[in-house]
Design goal:
single chain; 185 residues; alpha/beta; six-stranded mixed beta sheet; 8 helices; 42% helix; globular
Length: 185
């Protein structure tokens, strides 16, 4: 079983940020939420207050102006081409995608690619509220074990050292930069 981070690993970009911009163009009322998002950015990134989950819940308030499932399907119609070639060339039936992006956003593309195992942040597509923690860092390992038990990961791929907890449970781990894949150091 191979496991992959999603954003900037098998997808060329940040799907959540790209979906936010896609939604902003489609649903102009989201602009009214920009002041609260700016406040959350300052609070979390500048003043280091709150958790990433709390920050993202403020950001995901924009979902109240969307039909998130339909918008996600439409988003992937335009963005499927950003799935990286290295991944498509080595994709296996038992691959696991494990991501901080929300399930509702990644589910349509995973289904289209035939990926059966998706572990991602559980975000209500109507309210933006989380059930559980943001699927990031150690939380990825916890969630992986919750679903698969002590199943061994053959290879793990990520663009970020923040995924070191997942890299540590894999037989082999790789860093991805663009289409270049190199051993984890």
């Amino acid at each position: 079983m191979n496991a992959y981070d999603f954003d900037k690993t098998i997808y060329d970009g940040d799907s959540t940020a790209n979906f936010y911009l896609f939604s902003l163009r489609r649903h102009k009322r989201i602009f009214f939420l920009c002041p609260s998002l700016l406040g959350a950015v300052l609070r979390f990134y500048l003043f280091k207050r709150g958790t990433k989950t709390q920050f993202k819940e403020v950001m995901y308030r924009f979902l109240k102006y969307c039909d998130a499932e339909k918008d996600a399907a439409d988003f992937w119609q335009l963005n499927e081409k950003k799935i990286k070639k290295f991944y498509l060339a080595q994709k296996r039936d038992d691959d696991v995608i494990i991501s901080a992006s929300p399930v509702f956003l990644l589910k349509p593309i995973c289904e289209k690619l035939g990926i059966k195992h998706l572990i991602a942040s559980r975000v209500d597509p109507k309210t933006g509220k989380y059930s559980g923690e943001n699927c990031h860092g150690k939380e990825k390992v916890r969630r992986f074990y919750e679903i698969f038990g002590k199943t061994e990961v053959d290879e793990f791929y990520s663009d970020s050292h923040s995924d070191e907890p997942m890299a540590k449970i894999a037989k082999k781990a790789f860093l991805v930069k663009g289409e270049a894949v190199s051993p984890w150091k």
